[in-house]
Every structure is written in structure tokens, then in C-alpha cells.
């Protein structure tokens, strides 16, 4: 196997347990000098020492495995744009912090988030109009799911247990949920008027759950499952919520709704049956959606949550993008990161998918750090009402690291050893690619070169990073 260096993590684990190097070395049956070299990354962990460490500390071997730092590195660069002078901090220094001291890196990122929140609040109270304040609660909730790799174990298992007790069967989930709401909670499911503004409304006084008449069967099931999350899993939701620190009650309430939606997705698509079907069908989203009677977006989003330790699916990134390039949903079980500033990359295939509605567009994309991903993108359209009513069109993007691509049906016909690669970036301000004709802003930490005697095809001429 590749050499494994995990000195910082080992040292932190030893100090948390109150052990000296001499004491731990004696337990591991190695010399104190050898342990000192391991902790300072001058010697790698051997298989024998790794096995002993997992036995001594009761941790999974994955605790010592190299962490995917791409996302944290990009967040660090956004958090420290001015540090180090005009040219910014060297990339190698940031990589060292993200790789060897992930807790320090996370603390820096959290401080930067609080700074952004404070700036947004100041702009609001001084009457400087900005959209930042309105977006902050959603960003906090998005970060919460990011930190958990979009898998919330207690909520997922509670939903799976309820699905087992109700006895839901594929393509009959809606009827089972309706029957369970009535028999277990005295809740009647009714239909609202055709012109009602909301798609769901629950009246606790009359124990009535009203659904919009134009909801598809899968959507009806999801809304009934969401109500069951509040009725039967409220304690589980609160336990997860209480374990976090939230900036305000609005964000906390929004997070609870997000967890209820997570529960609903896990209830109508229970983990084990869905995981087995995904593996058997090679993660074909359209076939899975038809197989379980749900929409394309619901099936794709559920695929991005399959990170249970004993039944781990492909780690996916899930995004939902509108025609203006706004990302309204973004969750990830990998290190893939798009910048909070400067927009997303126009070379990404989620934008090409709008030109071919209903068709899956496949792209092998390479990030500036050399990491390659297989991306699948397809449009979905939502409409309420009849003729003349407005429709909403989004592109659903689903991506995974290229090393996982062989598990997907979408890799058929691709040369995964030497594929045609599209170079993309996390966002113009944090992308290091020097010769990108689509660049919309100069990169952070690179001096802008201005010469009235010369022009180039590239929109921004920049110098080298120090």
C-alpha cells in the first residue's frame, strides 16, 4: 500500500488520552524514538503499528487515512485572500495546514464565516442593502450537511426502521403512508383547491394534511413522509439539532426542516433496498427513479446519501442549478468544492445540459489539483397549473471521483485510463488555471498584469504566485 503519514492525527489522539510518547510506545511495543519519528511524519505508519493503534484506541483504521483536502483547501484560500501580502500565501503552505492540521484549518474557515456573517449583519443594520443576510441561514444548513458528508446516520436508520414497521413496498409507498397516518396518528390526507398557493399544509387542530392536487404520486409520498418525520421522529431530529451550534432560531428551524426532508427521502427510499438496487443497476438514475416510482431529482439526491459505514455507496456530489447559474442545492460526500465567491465554472457540463433537455450529459472534468471527476447532468422541469402557467427548469448534476466511475453505467464507452478531460475550476477567484478564456475574474493572490502595449486572448493577465 502507499506510505501512510498521519503524525498530527496520532499525536492529537495520544494527547487526548493523556498518554506520553514513552507510555504509548510501550503499549505498541515500539521504541519511543520510532514513535516520535511517526508523529513528526519522518516515518510512515506500518500495517502492524496501524493494527495495534486501532486496537489500543478503538478507532477505525480510516481515522488515520489521508483526508481529501480539496474542499478545505479551497475554503482556506477564500478565508485568507489578503494574507501574505499582495501575492497571498503560498499554495504549499495552505496544503500543509489543510493536510496536517485539519482542525486548525476548520477553525480558520469558521472564523471567516463568522466574519462574513458579521459584515452581512452590519450592512443590514446600516441600511446597505445586500442579499447576503437572506442567504445566510441556507448557507449554514448547507455547511452542516457538508460536514456530515450528506449522511445523517440516526435520522437515516430511524426512517429505515419506520419503513420496515409500516411494511412499505416499492410503488405502493404512498398508500402505506396514507394508511399509517390515519391509523397511527388520526391524520387525514386531503386535497387542497387547485389554485392554492402551497403544496402542503398541516392543520394540527383538525389533524388534516392537505396536499396540492397536481402533485405526482412520488411528491405526495414525500410530503406525507415529511409529516411523519415530525410526528414520529421529532426526538431524533432534535437530538441531531441540539448537538450543533446555530447562529439563530431561523437557521435552527431551517435545519430541522432539512432533516425532516432527509428523513422523508430515507423513508420512501429505505437505505438497504435502495443501495442494493443502485449497485445492481449500476447507479442508473433514470432507471432507479422509475423502479421506485419517484422523480429523477429525488433518486439522484438519495444516491448522494449512501455513506453508511457498512454499506457504502459511491460518494457523490449533488447539485441543482438554474439557468442563471445559481446553485440552489449543493451537497457532497467528497472533497469537491465550488467557491462561494466568483461564480462557478462555465466549462462545467451542468450548463451544457440546458441545451439538450431530458438527456444525460456526461463529462470527465479535472480540477486544478489534478483530481478528476465523472459528471452526469440532466434537466428536470416542474410546472404547477395548466396552460400558460410558469415552469421551473433546473439541471441536476451528479458527480463522483473518476476512480469510482467504473461502478456507474455512465462510464460505458469511456476510456477511464486516458479519457478526454475538460479542465474546470472551483470558481474564477480560487482557480489557478492561467490560460482560461472563460475566466470572469482574476484569481485571489495573483498580481494583475496590465500592459497597454499588449493584449491576449485570455481576459485577465496575471503574474506568478509568490
Note down, in words, how this protein is organized.
It is a single chain. The protein is of the alpha+beta class. Among the domains are: 7-64, 434 Repressor (Amino-terminal Domain); 70-130, no CATH class; 131-268, Arc Repressor Mutant, subunit A (Orthogonal Bundle), CATH 1.10.10.2910. The protein is built from 17 helices and 11 strands. It has helices at residues 7-16, 21-28, 32-39, 47-57, 70-79, 91-100, 102-125, 132-147, 153-166, 173-185, 217-232, 234-242, 249-268, 271-280, 285-292, 296-303, 349-352; strands at 188-191, 200-203, 208-211, 307-308, 311-312, 317-321, 327-332, 361-366, 372-383, 391-401, 422-423. The strands form 3 sheets. The chain has a 6-stranded mixed β-sheet with strand order 7-6-10-9-8-11. The chain has a 3-stranded mixed β-sheet with strand order 1-3-2, with helices on one face. It is globular, with a radius of gyration of 25 Å. One of its GO terms (cellular component) is cytosol. This is Cro/Cl family transcriptional regulator. GO terms for molecular function: DNA binding; DNA-binding transcription factor activity.
Amino acid at each position: 500500500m502507499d506510505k501512510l503519514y498521519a503524525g498530527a492525527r496520532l499525536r492529537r489522539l495520544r494527547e487526548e488520552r493523556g498518554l506520553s510518547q514513552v507510555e504509548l510506545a510501550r503499549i505498541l511495543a515500539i521504541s519511543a524514538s520510532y514513535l516520535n519519528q511517526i508523529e513528526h511524519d519522518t516515518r510512515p505508519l506500518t500495517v502492524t503499528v496501524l493494527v495495534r493503534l486501532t486496537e489500543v484506541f478503538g478507532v477505525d483504521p480510516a481515522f488515520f487515512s489521508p483526508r481529501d483536502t480539496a474542499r478545505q483547501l479551497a475554503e482556506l484560500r477564500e478565508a485568507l485572500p489578503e494574507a501574505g501580502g499582495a501575492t497571498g500565501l503560498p499554495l504549499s503552505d495552505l496544503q500543509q495546514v489543510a493536510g496536517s492540521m485539519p482542525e486548525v484549518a476548520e477553525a480558520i474557515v469558521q472564523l471567516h464565516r463568522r466574519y462574513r456573517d458579521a459584515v452581512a449583519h452590519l450592512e443590514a443594520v446600516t441600511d446597505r442593502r445586500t442579499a447576503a443576510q437572506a442567504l445566510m441561514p441556507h448557507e449554514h444548513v448547507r455547511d452542516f450537511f457538508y460536514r456530515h458528508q450528506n449522511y445523517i446516520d440516526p435520522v437515516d436508520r430511524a426512517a429505515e426502521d419506520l419503513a420496515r414497521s409500516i411494511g412499505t413496498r416499492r410503488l405502493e409507498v404512498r398508500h402505506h403512508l396514507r394508511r399509517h397516518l390515519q391509523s397511527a396518528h388520526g391524520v387525514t390526507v386531503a386535497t387542497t383547491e387547485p389554485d392554492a398557493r402551497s403544496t402542503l399544509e398541516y392543520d394540527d387542530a383538525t389533524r388534516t394534511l392537505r396536499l396540492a392536487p397536481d402533485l405526482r404520486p412520488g411528491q405526495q409520498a414525500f410530503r406525507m413522509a415529511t409529516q411523519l418525520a415530525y410526528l414520529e421522529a421529532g426526538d431524533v431530529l432534535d437530538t441531531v439539532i441540539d448537538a450543533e451550534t446555530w447562529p439563530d432560531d431561523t437557521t435552527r428551524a431551517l435545519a430541522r426542516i432539512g432533516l425532516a426532508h432527509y428523513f422523508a427521502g430515507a423513508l420512501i427510499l429505505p437505505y438497504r433496498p435502495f443501495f442494493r438496487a443502485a449497485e445492481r443497476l449500476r447507479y442508473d438514475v433514470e432507471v432507479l427513479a422509475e423502479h421506485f416510482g419517484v422523480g429523477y431529482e429525488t433518486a439522484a439526491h438519495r444516491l448522494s446519501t449512501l455513506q453508511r459505514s457498512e454499506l457504502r455507496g459511491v460518494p457523490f456530489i449533488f447539485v441543482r442549478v438554474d439557468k442563471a447559474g445559481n446553485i440552489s442545492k449543493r451537497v457532497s460526500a467528497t472533497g469537491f468544492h465550488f467557491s462561494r465567491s466568483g461564480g462557478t465554472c462555465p466549462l462545467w457540463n451542468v450548463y451544457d445540459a440546458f441545451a439538450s433537455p431530458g438527456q444525460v450529459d456526461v463529462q470527465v472534468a479535472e480540477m486544478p489539483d489534478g483530481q478528476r471527476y465523472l459528471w452526469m447532468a440532466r434537466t428536470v422541469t416542474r410546472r404547477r397549473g395548466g396552460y400558460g402557467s410558469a415552469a421551473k427548469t433546473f439541471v441536476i448534476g451528479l458527480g463522483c471521483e473518476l476512480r469510482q466511475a467504473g461502478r456507474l453505467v455512465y462510464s460505458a464507452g469511456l476510456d477511464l485510463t486516458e479519457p478526454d478531460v475538460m479542465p474546470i475550476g472551483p470558481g474564477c477567484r480560487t482557480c489557478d488555471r492561467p490560460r482560461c478564456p472563460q475566466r470572469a475574474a482574476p484569481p485571489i493572490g495573483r498580481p494583475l498584469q496590465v500592459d497597454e502595449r499588449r493584449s491576449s486572448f485570455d481576459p485577465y493577465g496575471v503574474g506568478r504566485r509568490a
